[in-house]
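Narrative of activities, Objective 1.

The group set out to show that a structural description can be obtained from nothing but a protein's sequence at a throughput compatible with the screening campaign. Below is one input-output pair from the validation batch, recorded exactly as produced.
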Amino acid sequence: MRKIALIVLLSGIILAVAAYITETNDLPGAAELRTPGFIGYIFIISAIAWFSLHILYQWAKKSDPYHY
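Output recorded for this entry:
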């Protein structure tokens, strides 16, 4: 799952950067890349959320609340 999240993160970055560059430089195809750019943002947020939850899960496994 970690590899999938990393691939999703990198593809989201590529999609968002491509949409940003075409929009700021007024390149042709800027309107068509708005939707993939938005999908890229969703990919980035989802991958970061998965990594954050994975870290919290690892921390929770390390702490045992019943043994002080």
